[in-house]
Amino acid sequence: MKVEEVKSTIKTQRISAHSHVKGLGLDENGFAIAQAAGLVGQEQAREAAGIVVDMIRSKKMAGRAVLLAGPPGTGKTAIALAIAQELGNKVPFCPMVGSEVYSSEIKKTEVLMENFRRAIGLRVRETKEIYEGEVCELSPVETEHPVGGQGKSVSHVVIGLRTAKGTKQLKLDPNIYEALQKERVEVGDVIYIEALSGAIKRQGRSDAFATEFDLEAEEYVPLPKGDVHKKKEVVQDVTLHDLDAANAKPQGGQDVLSMMGQLLRSKKTEITDKLRKEVNKIVDKYIDQGIAELVPGVLFIDEVHMLDIETFTYLHKALESAIAPIVIFATNRGRCLIRGTDDIYSPHGIPLDLLDRLLIIRTVPYDRPDMEQILKLRAKTEGLEIDDNALTALGAVGTKATLRYAVQLLTPAHLTAKGNKRTNITVADVEEVSFLFLDAKQSAKILSENSAKFMQ
């Protein structure tokens, strides 16, 4: 198994309502700052989450999980994401909802295990032989085309690399010249070339070229120190699911039956326990050799009340596993029926024996000033200009309806302002979109008043 050939399958984060969350926003004593790191209010819940982060860092969360319980739109997902951000940027964060486990193609427990392993990272450190330096010469050498004719072909490339210690000239194959063109490498760029694979990585523009006239550079980096030819530690982050998926790919033959079998194969195939055990053996071997280290991430299961009694039972085993991520549940339900049973009611729809394992954090509805701060923050994140009076009007809408609905009105209000040849959102824009659209309470009222006109 080659780790460098594994492509990450981590679920990419959407640019969404929580893209601005950068952490829990706590001070050095663990107390919540009113507005910090993209979070507003919920001081008690954030301080409790800070204690959870300390427990995770001190490795005291084994066999436990966290439950965020509160009404809709009170920041449960934001706090879960903030916990992951506090643990580090490279820590995997795998969000899912309880209804994801119900599939006609794959078992419920398999969906859970797949997401568990998505939330467990493996940081692999490899020492590679590389050539690193600032490009001081880049000369393709052309020769006559071997087939004949008027054209010429690149036979090799001469590249000069400079460091603070000296300069070295390299003779590279034509295919590496194509890689240089793909990376848009020019004289003055700092790059490194892997000696064995020939892979090229552009690190940035040398800071010696950092002048007001050099406008094309995206990032300036210092001139490398030491020799051009050196050994360097390269760090790569993958997840256990990446390794599972890479080793579960079907290796079919070239005959018709093999190719047809691959075409007819279900897109979502189960990974066997036997394969996972083999991957775990290799991971353990890497860890024992000091090549890699495990990075437990965060698995966030929203709408946990949608899980049934079978999956809750399986969660017990998964939480007690030696290799397990930090699991955070969230729900907006009170006392309700446990799915998969006929007469068993429990708080949040979770069995009592699992509730005993959970640290429960409560979130409360936002008041109007907090709503206005959140709306202001969202407008800034989305690059929208909004008047103070319009912000107050949206805060009133959020108090009357919900915060989510008020946030949803930001973009329609911006488009209305744009249609009126303005760049900023005013009270008139908020009033217009409030008239055009209905919130859930208004819609329910209309349904009840005109129930005879609707199908029952």
From TrEMBL:
The keyword Transmembrane does not apply. It is an enzyme of class 3 (hydrolase). The keyword Cell cycle applies. Its EC number is 3.6.4.12. It is found in: Nucleus. One of its GO terms (cellular component) is nucleus. Proposed core component of the chromatin remodeling Ino80 complex which is involved in transcriptional regulation, DNA replication and probably DNA repair. Belongs to the RuvB family. GO terms for biological process: cell division; DNA recombination; DNA repair; DNA repair-dependent chromatin remodeling; negative regulation of signal transduction; positive regulation of DNA-templated transcription; positive regulation of gene expression; regulation of canonical Wnt signaling pathway. It comes from the Eukaryota. InterPro entries: AAA+_ATPase (IPR003593), NA-bd_OB-fold (IPR012340), P-loop_NTPase (IPR027417), RuvB-like (IPR027238), RuvB-like_C (IPR041048), RuvBL1/2_DNA/RNA_bd_dom (IPR042487), TIP49_P-loop (IPR010339). Residues 62-370 form the AAA+ ATPase domain. This is RuvB-like helicase. Its main location: nucleus. Keywords: ATP-binding, Cell cycle, Cell division, Chromatin regulator, DNA damage, DNA recombination, DNA repair, Helicase, Hydrolase, Nucleotide-binding, Nucleus, Transcription, Transcription regulation. GO terms for molecular function: ATP binding; DNA helicase activity; hydrolase activity; transcription coregulator activity. It catalyses: ATP + H2O = ADP + phosphate + H(+).
